[in-house]
Amino acid sequence: MFLFYYSIAMQICAILTSACCLASYLVSRNKVQLYCFVGFLMYYADCMLVFRDDYVMASSTVSHEAFFIGDPAFSIIFGCATLMSFWLMVCAYVEEGSIIVRFCPAYLFVGASLAVTLLLPQGYVHMFVFYSLREVFIAWMLFFAAYKYITTEDDRLRLRLSRFPKFYVLLWVLLLAVVAENGLVLLLIGPGHVDIPLGFFPERNFAENLLALVCEFVALRSSLTYLSVRHSEPPTQGGEHVETYINHNLVPYAASHKLTPRETEILRLVLLGKDNQNIAAELSLAPGTVKVHVHNILKKSQKANRQELIQDYWDY
Asked: Are residues 204 and 245 in the same domain?
């Protein structure tokens, strides 16, 4: 009964996160959110496979010791769809445009999964290797993000990649825990000796589920931030939440358009809906000086007026 509610909870978390990512994409048109939507939707489908396998195993005469992978074809399809969605999300975040880099990992994953399925004899080693290919794919994503951070000469991109150091480290810790749990249960102890009501499936690796929950939490938080602002009518009035969001993204936006510190300061006030007269009074500048700075900001951002500038900032 515990595993029944456990499986339902994992499905609810995945589909809720997917729905929030879709909503935030429709508001922001941010491709990172779009890829997150597809990734969590595919992960939901993968959870449904686990749910099905539980009750195929429970209602059959198959021993809990069986070498059971359910349907390898569906596992490969949904596993690849899930991982590729998140890989494309990583590529979008680090601005990787190479078609080969973006799509080659999918072919390698499918090819390796088919090779393991067809060539390795059925057994616990086969199960361990089959599901460990997922962890290899995730490790590749993490290595690639680190590589981009080390090698990039773009200060804006480096700043974006340095925003989540604790999350990055936590992903590595949980990824290693996934491999350790599978290795411990499949290669050392044996599923038949694990005190679980149903057979052990690497599909339901509890460390992997925790990894998914951590990613869902980060995605939900990001989505709710996007949903708090309007896409068609960006907020122009101040407020604690709006100011926090502006301050959070101001530095990378200014760096991407090569704004000076003074221009960045004035941009912040423009985003809060203040006119030149109010900006001049707040910064103790002449209105003409503020007008020149605003003109330079519009020129550097290639926008015709304040409304386009504000819209571009919220899109960013």
From this structure: no
pLDDT at 44: 92
CATH of the domain at 22: 1.20.1070
Cα gap 37→24, rounded to integer Å:
9
If asked whether residues 67 and 212 sit together in one domain, one would say yes
Overall number of domains in the chain? 2
pLDDT in tens, 2-24: 667 888 888 999 999 999 999 98
Average pLDDT, the chain: 82
Closest CA to 267 of 281, 250, 283: 250
Burial bucket for residue 215 (CB in 10 Å: 0-12, 13-18, 19+): buried
pTM score of the predicted model: 0.70
- Please give the biggest Cα pair distance in the chain: 84
**Burial letters 52-79, b for 16+ CB under 10 A, else e:** ebbeebeeeeeeeeebbbbeeeebbbbb
Any idea how long the chain is?
316
Predicted pLDDT at 273:
83
Residue 203 makes CB contacts below 8 A (sequence gap 6+) with: 46, 49, 50, 53, 70, 75, 131
Torsion of CA 166, 168, 169, 174, to 10 degrees: 120
